[in-house]
Design a protein that fits this description.
The protein has a single domain, classed as P-loop containing nucleotide triphosphate hydrolases (Rossmann fold). The protein contains 11 helices and 8 strands. The protein is of the alpha/beta class. The longest helix is centred in the last third of the chain and has 15 residues. It is 38% helix and 18% strand.
């Protein structure tokens, strides 16, 4: 049974793409057939997987507007069981072109339904906004994974994301649940990181799961995208790589 995981938070710089790329790689290296869908016009997940976006004939955008079959967009990576549907800046146009279309929130779901049974996991990387693209990702997903950075205003704005999820539950995707809250940029040397972790535990106690794995601030994790590699290929022994292996295990164990 395929599980579709949407990685979302409307705040930028919280580790969404880092998590999408490295969780996908960790699941694939755990021998799970995995598809990473880059649903962000910035296309950082695409370049983070070593794909030259300028050399692509077509991207997710062309699949969503019906100009390409979704199957033709699947792109191989250095990891055997990991494939990508890449993105590029033209994906911005999807919002405008679909503005007056009926069922516009369900377009991605329909596209993925054609190929979902080939994979154990489909990971969707969302843009840093509650846009039509994010709504499409949440409509297509089984679960929502929320990265929460260990910084001062971490919980600010999270209520809006949870309200959006509630609206999605009330209409286009009643089954969407929260897989967990993932603490990112955790620095065990600072009081602030521990304070944010404690606040998150209190805020979500009895409501949502906070993963026991947290993602550390890690230089190697920051370097890997510039080499077009997930951290597990760039430096498998680093703290960043080990943390994503641990996260993948938590998800696999349920």
């Amino acid at each position: 049974m395929t599980q579709i995981i949407c990685i979302a938070n409307q705040k930028g710089g919280v580790g969404k793409t880092t998590t999408a790329v490295n969780l996908s790689a960790a699941l694939a290296l755990a021998e799970k057939r995995t598809l990473l869908v880059d649903c962000d016009p910035q296309a950082n997940a695409t370049t983070g997987m070593g794909i030259d976006k300028n050399g692509l004939a077509q991207t997710l955008y062309h699949g969503l507007i019906g100009e390409a079959d979704i199957e033709s967009l699947i792109t191989a990576t250095e990891i055997d069981r990991l494939q990508v549907i890449p993105s590029r800046v033209e994906l911005i146009g999807f919002e405008v072109e679909m503005m007056n279309e009926n069922g516009r929130e369900q377009v991605l779901k329909k596209c993925l339904s054609r190929i979902a049974d080939r994979y154990d996991y489909i990971i969707i990387d969302c843009p840093p906004s509650l846009s039509l693209l994010t709504l499409n990702a949440m409509a297509a997903a089984d679960v929502l994974l929320i990265p929460l950075q260990c910084e001062f205003y971490a919980l600010e704005g999270l209520g809006q994301l949870l309200q959006t999820k509630a609206l999605i539950n009330g209409g286009i995707n009643p089954g969407l649940s929260i897989s967990g809250i993932l603490l990112t940029m955790f620095d065990k040397r600072t009081n602030l990181s521990h304070q944010v972790a404690e606040e998150a535990m209190k805020y979500f106690k009895g409501k949502e799961r906070v993963f026991s794995t947290s993602i550390p601030r890690n230089v190697r994790l920051g370097e890997a995208p510039s080499f077009g590699k997930p951290i597990l290929l760039y430096d498998a022994g680093s703290m960043g790589a080990q943390s994503y292996i641990a996260l993948a295990k938590e998800i696999l164990d349920g």
